Protein: Glycoside hydrolase
Amino acid sequence: MAISKQYLKSKPVCKVTFTVPAKEASKVSVVGDFNNWDTSSASLRKLKNGTFKGIINLAKDVAYEFRYVVDGTYVNDDQADRFQWNDYAGAENGVLEL
Structure:
């Protein structure tokens, strides 16, 4: 898994690219504070090599909890900036610090 960040000079926004290798998966989405954990709002697109990829514009100077949903299973990204326990989920979430 990979996360890349591109900060825009003209706006207080960061373009975040999420990449998830999941050849056997049929659907991958990224969920978090930024989309109210809605599994349908940020689906990643499957590429020919089996990797799922998507770009989301997020406000700078904010930390977001997030996870991937791979065919209905919640998965953390090992490339997250840090991890934080979430009592509601009963699990650790990845944290993206922008």
